[in-house]
Write a structure and sequence with these properties.
The structure is a single chain. This protein has 717 residues and is an alpha/beta fold. The chain is 40% helix and 13% strand. It has 27 helices and 19 strands. Strands 3-2-1-4-5-7-6-8-9 form a nine-stranded mixed beta sheet, sandwiched between helices. Strand 2, helix 11 and strand 3 form a beta-alpha-beta unit. The protein starts with a helix and ends in a 30-residue tail after the last helix. The N terminus is likely disordered.
């Protein structure tokens, strides 16, 4: 229940912040207001859950629920369901272009495809498409929330049915019965989606509520402790018992797995239906008969959802839940690792795989997700799976795609795949990352629909992604840059890039260098042996830092007394080591370094002998100093910044991305001479201020005559 203060806050939000149109059914406001109410209902539970290290089963609905902006819903549905029906019409020899058909339907968010070669433009499944019937087209949202996507899909289906000659009354019945499917693990979300669809159908057919038609939307059930033994008197064979136990096992944790449940074995659904509907022998009512009746009710729910999860659909469209693997409890975490090893890093990526498997061959699936899967190495296996499909369109949103999420951390993308390989297909990509609000992104997208010459719309062959190490979805990469990846020498063939140590508690082991006694710091140890001999406690630590080039960011020292004895023995209460000491043989060596976290330009610096790298300060090493300096010169160019942004445009620069940078080697020592000069200039600049441990005097003092300097110096003694 709402607490009074929270209830007042929601009402105040609805009065002051929610558009009047969200209440206006005539302009689609019915589903808008239901969605907003549901999201704000979950605000308090979400805030509580976010404070937890691990999410409980009961936390999942609240922390993963985010209302999808209306224009993105329209983008997904029009470019999947709408696109599929345009394919059907063209297969039936409709002479109009896809743009003309979309305009005729009023699908303003439909993005026409790029011009293709004759071989590509021929539909490989034209024969089956020419026979397609709208009653056979199906769409599923596997995490439907309050039903926003399903409601707009209803509207698009209605348009198509009417063009095919159906009455609105008949179309409403058929859409609910045959075309639209949805699943969720949240009972409240299911109820709202059910209600929305019923009201939508009622708007088209006044008698709909009396027709005894149930929408195909479900709250995924949980079998709990049920086994075949609970249905013993209804079973006819051992094989039936085995099949029933298999089905019940798959739904044991239905409230956590939801539509991720995969039925790998065939199930005799007619047998399951018979057991769940079989009437019990008449006689005196008993406790066992009541329990069996309740078990049958549960089995009917499992049967209905199981049938959905064991089939495929023409179209998939969803905004999946987001949850990193570190937040999953042991039950969900183990299930995801076992069944979705290619996408296990985050729940949104897992649902990308799952929705793909729920989509028919030659069908379309559309999603809005975080954009991390496009670039990060942890999703490379997922990208390898997805390359078997065809990326038709992508609106790369970046930050601020959702009004209620500020900041620069959550970055999103929405896209449409065709579940079919189309060799050399030219996909269309709208780069909206530089538009800084939800409204501006929508306006920019619509402008690109009307004018494909805008400078933020890209057309590229998906095959180009495989030419770049790690296969990032770098749709903006130029032909010249892709060629560099093909002919250049990989960075990891020239230098050794390494990740630094992780203390487990930086507040315990790290200090700014001037916070500790200088006499306890060894600034010049060049290897582990020297560090031990020095008997010092503190040593310089490379922890990344602010944007600089060539030299600087000597800020921190680390407690590495006696070869890091305290850090190496820093454990959790259960005895497990809390710290992670990586690559110690590289400690204290000269290196080139770049910060792990950066929101601006890629910056690289020379690091003198004497430091220990921490995880925020990545380093690369070479026994050939000239080669190290040559690489530093190359990395300091604008070209490298573009390459790094191509490999990974997120705020985290990984060692794996660095290793994939191509280097075009050339002869000559000029770059080395130049970079040495730049290092010296940057070092002089760093040492001009008190933050440097090599500081001697402020640069302004160099312009004061020697006989006047005494006035500027501190008195001695």
């Amino acid at each position: 229940m709402f607490t009074p203060s929270y209830h007042d806050g929601v009402i105040q939000h609805l009065i002051t912040d929610v558009s009047e149109d969200d209440f206006n059914v005539a302009v689609g406001g019915q589903v808008e207001i239901i969605g907003w109410l549901y999201q704000y209902y979950n605000t308090e539970p979400k805030d509580r859950a976010f404070k937890k290290k691990k999410y409980l089963e009961s936390d999942i609905p609240a922390v993963t629920q985010l209302f999808t902006p209306d224009w993105i819903v329209k983008y997904m549905v029009e470019n999947s369901l709408g696109r599929y029906w345009i394919d059907v019409l063209q297969a039936k020899e409709d002479p109009r272009s896809s743009r003309e058909i979309a305009e005729d339907f009023g699908w303003q968010y439909f993005m026409p495809e790029a011009e293709q070669s004759d071989q590509i433009s021929v539909q490989t499944n034209a024969d089956s498409l020419s026979q397609a019937d709208i009653e056979d087209v199906t769409l599923i949202d596997a995490a439907m929330g309050s039903g926003h996507i399903l409601i707009y899909a209803f509207e698009v289906f209605m348009q198509i049915y009417e063009r095919e000659g159906y009455s609105r009354r008949d179309a409403a019945k058929l859409i609910v019965q045959k075309n639209i499917y949805g699943l969720d693990i949240d009972t409240r979300a299911f109820q709202l989606a059910y209600f929305s669809l019923m009201m939508k159908a009622r708007g088209a057919n006044r008698r709909f509520l009396t027709l005894d038609i149930r929408p195909n939307v479900f709250d995924v059930p949980e079998s709990g402790e049920l086994t075949s033994a609970d249905f013993q008197e209804l079973l006819q064979s051992e094989d039936e018992a085995k099949q029933l136990d298999y089905l019940l096992d798959q739904f044991r944790y239905g409230n956590e797995y939801g539509s991720l449940i995969q039925l790998d074995k065939s199930v005799d659904w007619s047998m399951i239906t018979r057991i769940s509907n079989q009437e019990l022998d008449e006689g005196q009512l008993s406790l066992s008969s009541i329990v069996l009746t309740e078990s049958q009710d549960k089995l009917r729910e499992i049967c209905a959802v199981g049938k959905i999860l064991s089939r495929q659909f023409t179209i998939g469209a969803m905004n999946p839940p987001y949850m990193g693997s570190g937040k999953m409890d042991s039950i969900l975490g183990k299930y995801v690792k076992k069944h979705f090893p290619n996408s296990k890093s985050d729940l949104f990526a897992v649902f990308m795989e799952r929705l793909r498997s729920l989509t028919d061959t030659n069908g379309y699936y559309a999603m809005i997700t975080q954009h991390a899967w496009m670039f990060l190495s942890s999703f490379e296996k997922l990208r390898s799976v997805l390359k078997a499909d065809t990326l038709i369109n992508m609106a790369h949103l970046g930050t601020r795609a959702f009004e209620e999420i500020g900041g620069e951390v959550v970055q999103s993308t929405t896209f449409v795949f065709k579940h079919q390989t189309i060799a050399n297909y030219i996909g269309t990509y709208e780069r909206l990352v530089n538009f800084d609000s939800q409204q501006k992104k929508e306006q920019a997208y619509l402008a690109a629909v009307k004018n494909t010459d805008v400078d933020y719309l890209y057309r590229t062959n998906q095959a180009n992604f495989a030419k770049i190490p790690g296969m990032p979805i770098a749709y903006w990469a130029s032909a010249n840059l892709i060629h560099d990846f093909e002919v250049g020498t990989r960075m990891d063939e020239l230098v050794d890039a390494k990740v630094g140590l992780q203390t487990g508690d930086n507040s315990k082991f790290l200090r700014i260098w001037y916070e500790v006694d200088n006499k306890k710091i060894s600034f010049r140890s060049v290897n582990l042996s020297e560090s031990v001999k020095s008997q010092k406690k503190w040593f310089p630590c490379n922890k990344g830092g602010a944007y600089r080039k060539w030299f600087g960011n000597y800020d921190y020292v680390i407690n590495w007394k006696n070869d890091g004895h305290e850090i190496k023995n820093f454990n959790w209460p259960n005895g497990k080591q809390r710290s992670v000491v990586r690559n110690p043989s590289y400690y204290f060596r000269e290196a080139i370094t770049w910060p792990k976290i950066t929101s601006g330009q890629f910056s690289v610096l020379y690091r003198e002998n004497g430091s220990i790298p921490e995880t925020a300060g990545n380093e690369a090493f070479s026994t050939d100093k000239n080669q190290l300096l040559y690489i530093l010169a190359f990395l300091g160019t604008k070209v490298t910044n573009k390459i790094m942004r191509t490999l990974n445009p997120t705020i985290n620069s990984q060692v794996g991305d660095f290793n994939n940078v191509p280097v075009l080697l050339s002869n000559g020592l000029k770059p080395i001479r130049i970079v040495k000069e730049l290092i010296n200039i940057a070092k002089d600049d760093w040492d001009c201020f008190e933050i440097s441990w090599d500081f001697t005097s402020h640069p302004l003092l160099t312009h004061i005559a020697d006989d006047n300097l005494s006035h500027c110096r501190s008195p001695v003694g």
